Amino acid sequence: AEPSAALAAADADGGAGGGAAAAPAADTGTETGAEVPLASAHAEPSQAATEAASGLSAAPAAAAIPPDVGQEAGGEEEAHGGKAEEPPVTAARSRKSVLHAMRGCAKMSKVAKQSIAMKHAASAGPGIQELTSRSGFTSDFLIRFSCQAERRGRKEGAEARRLIKNLLKAEKCKETLGYEYAMEALCREKLRSLLMFGITKECKERGLYARVDIGCLKKWAEVVRKRKRAVICLRAEVHNWLLRWRLLNTSERAVPESVWEKKDRLEDFWSTFHDRSRVLECGPSGLPPPGSPASRQIALRPPTSDSIQGERPRTTGQNPSGLQSLAGSPTGATDGALGGIAGSPGGSNWGLDSAAPVCFGMRWDFEQSVKWKAVQSGSGTPAQKAVGGLQRRPGSQGSLAMAKSASLPTLRKGAAGGRPSTVDTGGCRRRLPDPLPPLVVSKQRYLQECDSRRSAPMPLHFVTGHSKKLAAMGKDLVDGELLAMAGMLQEMEAVEEVNLLGNALLTDRGLTFLLQELSRDSVRATLQKLILARCQRAGPYTVDATVKLLKAGGALRQLDLSQVPIATRFQLPLCQAIGKHSSLENVNLAETGFQYHENTKECLSALLSSKCLRSLDIGWNCFNGEVLKSLGSCVIASKTLTKLRIANCAATLDTCPAEDFVPPLSRFLEMLSHDKTLTYLDISMNRCDFRTALILEDSLDTHAKLRELRLSQNPLGTLGMRSILRLLCRDHTGLMVFDTEACYTGQNNESGGTNSQIFSYTNPGGKYELQLWRPYHRALLRMLYKTMDFLKLGPDEAFEKITFAAKGSAASAWVHPATDAIGVRQIPEEGELTFVFNVEPAIFKRFISTGSLQDSDHHGFISMYFQLMRFRPAFKKVIPMCALWSQLDGDVFAQRTILAALSRDFNLSQSFVEFCCSASKTLQRETVARLLPCIDTNSAYMIGMTLPTFLDFAWTQHQTQNLLGFNLDNPTGHYKLDLSNSTDSTVAERLLLLDRWEAALDRKHARKDTSSRGNGSHIRNEVFQGRGLHMSFASVAEWKMAEHGEFEFDYISNQRPSRKAEVLSDELWESILIEVYHAQGTPEDKIAALRSISHNFLLRSTHMRAMIGYFKEEQQRADVFINFYLRLVDMHNAKLFRVRFEKKEEVARLQHRLGYASFFPFFQPENARFELNLAIYDQRLCASMFVALAIKEKFPHNLHEYGYKRADGTEDPMPLGVPRSWGDFNAIPKEGIFRALYMSAPEDRNIGFRKEIAKTYGYYDTDGITEDDVQWWTGLTEPPEDVINLLEFFISRYPDVQKAFIDIDGPDGNGVITLKEFMEGLEEMECHKFDVKKGQKTGPTKEQRIEQIFRYLDPGGEGSVSREEWGILDQLWKEFDLSIREFVHFLMLSFGDDLQVAWEALDEDGGGELDEQEWLRAVENIGYFGPAAVVFALLDSSDDGNISFDEFEVLEKYKPQKYQGRA
């Protein structure tokens, strides 16, 4: 049990942000032991604290605050001269104040503590006051909801109070969609609280419940604080983990080039270009000859800003407008100047041929306009001076050189007129780099190549000499441009990288020449990366050149040929060259055309034979299963490979037939169990489903190095995600990151039949039918062997009913496979194997034989078993799971798949679930509902209190009601569960495990098997999707629970209370029945409330009898009866309540649900009628017990009206009677229908044998029971109608039936009555009840009717009725009397002491009389469902078929003693 809500609210107020939230309240009997109710207004001062801390349950909200926590604060204020002014008190503030008071409780007096608690309870408002008298999730949430609404504002606070008021008054709330759900929960909680208050009080008075001091409450509060702190810490850790992951996995980028660096680099390049291109070869006039390349290159316009941004230069056939006046105008100042340069009088256009194409360089444009500066020359014509921008290059003859300042714009200067040495970058100053390095020869060579190939220069870093890496990604290069760059390699001695990614226009012409240049020794020795990815027009010559480059050796470390088509004839040479390369570490051959053919295996073997290969990508090729299996072998053989990418590699079709189809990738994954080097694996888009995921889980179970797994675009579904999450949660695996994008759909059933071959780690037991040629089935078998080893079982213990047959051959013996050197089971790859995996021996070894648990400790067993078999992720593994959840926020379908996967096989912490709630607001309520089974009940309470709205809470309560109402300490009952609901499936899983636990206990105590099918199971009538499981399985233990579908069954526990155990007092039980009668809600709600607390008390048979009469419908009576049937301590008096089931059909249904052996009337089988199907085990056992009992007592006279119908429908006349051999269970037939009536005279009873079979087959404590301890009883429906008529006659004339026996036998009688004496005695008594009515022509005569009565009273058949046999009438008399007294007691509880009030309620029309039909209808209307006809027969003393108030007053003498004389 956790701390009370008041304590938790204060400590969690800051951490969880929620007022009065945060402590586990009354548990619904699911995970804690017994339960303690809330303290109500009737509680004594110290009651609430001791109830909350009793270890049975925790009380919620303010009610859990001990009323004896003091008023010390008020007392101190008065002592200091007055009472301090207090702010308005809300429920949340009152709790927080009381918490502080509790912390100082050592200094308070008891009176002071009482006063403070009562003051705060009174200030909370009427609605809150009523809620605090209840115990449960809903009550606590409404208190918290109200407090939060008060803090948000007056209007919201008023609306919250109105909602609570309407709910408490059962008034409809139009604005609340969850009204009905909330009303159901509130009704159950109120009734629970009221009942448990009385039970707890009585148990404490008897010393059965211990009191707990305040120190325990403080410890619980500290636990709550730590849990809330864990949530905050987890949220911070996940944020940090995601940040670190992004930083570590962001691709490495070069240091960005600054604007000044870029300007300087491009200025240098284009200066070189212009200096080189404008050294004009002059003719006689000092100008280049017309039509020469030099003359054409003079027409260059200044570069534009586009080139500054890195845009590549392009050629154009149009003359730039900026040079139009220079080249084409015959007149004008400038034109004249230029014309003067030509030396012709009329001016010249520099001899430019307008028809010739003009090549333009880099476009350059700065903020300043381009200005041509006139530079004075030492000599020259005036025209030359006007141009000014042209000057002779020093040392040249007859040539003119253009000054740098004439061809380039003026760069932006600093304050001093030069280039600034520093620049401002976001508030800090950074020193600019040094001036550019000097011009290299390769640049000149590149420009020459551009000239010769008529291509525009491209100022890449590699070209400008600023880098040794040819990085031309996505530049759309053509062959001419690449040839120009390749040409400059002749002048270079070192190249580190060639990256042509995405240049789809390149062909063999350019690429082959480049690769040849790279093959030179000097270049090859420095080249480390060669990336030709997405050069899709590359042909065989490129591949051939690549092979030659690799064969030549070198320092190459990375080769990327992805999306480069590789012809089949080149694949093997390429792979061999890669494998033999001495330094190649990273190879990418994705989408290169590898397929499954005869050389593919050899290619992969050669490729992975490399001694230095670390990363390989062969994705987007097409491999079949055999090739992928070969790949697995090669990966295992490689000792250096750490990263493998095989995305979209699995062929759609395989070579095997359709019925034996094996997913190709599964063959590869199966091999990974022997790998020890991979750290990264990408198997995206390979159509991997949950089968492949299980193979992956099996193979990587012990892999300690694999850290990252990529699974995107695979239809894993819920089952596949569960396998991956289990793999992640294993502490000994290295997996920390996995990508499951678009993996959340997929099949969740292996075969679609009743028994799917699905592996469940929590409950792996069941029947398996495996086809060993399928990798999935081999992986499943290996997982079972691992489970066997984990549970420390031997193969013969874990595997039962084994059948093995090789494909197409007869069955043969199965030899359990041995393990290899690394512990992997070597499963054969052919044959069909059928077996049952049994976890019961493990349960017996771990939990029973050790004596660590008591037989009745169901909670302890389930808790320890889940700790053993469920995954609880370590802290380092929780963070990746939380990170995955955060990244999926908004993808509702994906998150639902994750929730469904986590809902089984996992134990989760409160911090994890709260994080999931906070990280996904849209699925908060669904997260709580689905993950509730994975956390302990106390954490579930605290998480439930964090739901944001009342509608969310009501919906969650409704979805989880089967789990919240499940009583593990008293599981006997009927269940109808929806397995698609995680809480329902958890209830089913717990009951299946509990069934194995109790079966192991039966084996320990050598108990007889009383199961329905003789399989030792305590689950009976199991039906899945409308089909009985017994038709397919010998036991429900062989059935593996499905992921969805309806599962309906009955569970009968083997736990029986001791005969000497403490039971509730009659007074307390009476008050419980009163509360049940007056409680709001449906009968189903009342039954649910009773069921949730049924483990807290034991009953006597009289209590059960009284309770049955409070429920009208047969189904309701059956439910409450079955739930409490095994809580009785005096089963030898069971006939007291069994007689209340008057219809044979109702008794048959109870036998069917409880079990024929469990419902067998061990102590009082008299008048028991049975009709048994001998084909069913427990009915055959029941028939054998009846015959054996008859043999022990008086065979064959005890069996009356017997008959046997064969399986073919024919009737066996049984001329010799019932065979004595049927007393032996093994000799009784296994088919047919056997029916009989058991009768036994009192003197023939064998109480010893009856006790023996009750102990053997009923598991009851029969030690010390004597015949006098049994209340011999007979029901009013058992004897013939004339016997009841005779009894009514005796009741009206005698105080007891023994007096009538004496009158018939005579004062000096011999103690027995013959038939003659019986008839004469009735005549003397003037009994006319059996006289033939006037006009009656058919039917038995008076003598025949009396004789029938006599034969009933003489079951032994001796011809006389002894005093003991006459006692049957005494038993009927007691039943008659008790039925009337129970009815009168009901009237007293319902209407008070005055019978007049009760009569007025019954006589609704005021007619003054009631006939039998009116009587029965009126009694049912007031809520009494007992034997009303018996009461009517008693009251109708005039035998006129009606009763009046005068006759009704006869009931006055049947009033209980405490009501006598109070009318």
Q: What does this molecule look like?
A:
This protein is α/β, with parallel strands linked by helices. The radius of gyration is 48 Å and the shape is elongated. Residues 1-126 and 278-439 have low confidence and may be disordered. The protein contains 58 helices and 31 strands. 44% of the residues lie in helices and 8% in strands. The strands form eight sheets. Strands 6-7-8-9-10-11-12-13-14-15 form a ten-stranded parallel sheet.
Distance separating the two termini: 48 Å
- Rg from Cα: 48 Å
Query: Based on DSSP secondary structure assignment, what is the total number of beta strands?
Result: 31
Report on the biggest sheet: 10 strands, parallel
What's the mean pLDDT score?
A: 77
Structural class computed from helices and strand pairing: alpha/beta
- Which geometry do the CA atoms define? elongated
Can you list the strand order of the major beta sheet? 6-7-8-9-10-11-12-13-14-15
Proportion of residues in β-strands: 5-15%
Discrete helix count: 58
Q: Helix content range of the residues, please?
A: 40-55%
Model regions low in confidence, pLDDT < 50 over at least 5 residues:
1-126, 278-439
